[in-house]
Amino acid sequence: MHRRSILWGAISAFGAAFAASRANAVSEAAPPAKLKVVYHLNDLDKVSFVLGNIQNHLDGVGGPDHITIALVIHGPALRAFHSAAANPDLSKRVSQFSKAGLELAACGNTMKSQNVALKDLLPGFIAAERGGVVRIAELQSQGYLYLRP
Q: Is the pLDDT at 7 greater than 90, yes or no?
């Protein structure tokens, strides 16, 4: 009886060690996927709040190397990003986000209704020609998580 217990213990220990080594090999071979997030902004009164959330998000994950973020803006919120009207703090944040590789997309429909072109917006923006909500849906179909603070 004593020999069986020793043998069974040895086999169990070997099995556990093998399982642990396989789990380590899998985690080393497949790094976690880079998270992708799209922020949706259309409320003018939430511009600073959303930009703060994005900065907190970047800081929380260790910077832009660890996450892909897109910001899609339409409706009244786009007015805050007109280069002629933007405050210096907002301009600085947008510049930093652009340099960090964030996609800054302005709704093409909103641009038409506000009679602005890309050159009228802060540097770093791209036009979502088919619309902001269409761009959000495209990003979601590519695996982006949707956030609307």
A: no
CA distance 91 to 67: 22
Confidence band (pLDDT; 50, 70, 90) for 4?
A: low
Residues paired with 37 in a beta bridge: 69, 145
Q: How far apart are CA 94 and CA 23, in angstroms?
A: 42
> Measured between alpha carbons, how far is 112 from 100 in angstroms, rounded to an integer?
28
pTM of the predicted protein model: 0.78
From the list 96, 94, 146, the residue with the least C-alpha distance to 125 is: 94
The answer to whether residues 99 and 64 touch, using CB atoms and an 8 Å cutoff, is: no
Pairing of strands 125-128, 103-107: parallel
How confident is residue 1, by pLDDT bands cut at 50, 70 and 90? low
Spatial separation of the C-alpha atoms in residues 71 and 69, rounded to whole Å: 7
Nearest-angstrom CA–CA distance, 26 and 39: 32
The pLDDT of residue 116: 96
Kindly give the pairing relationship between strand 67-73 and strand 103-107.
parallel
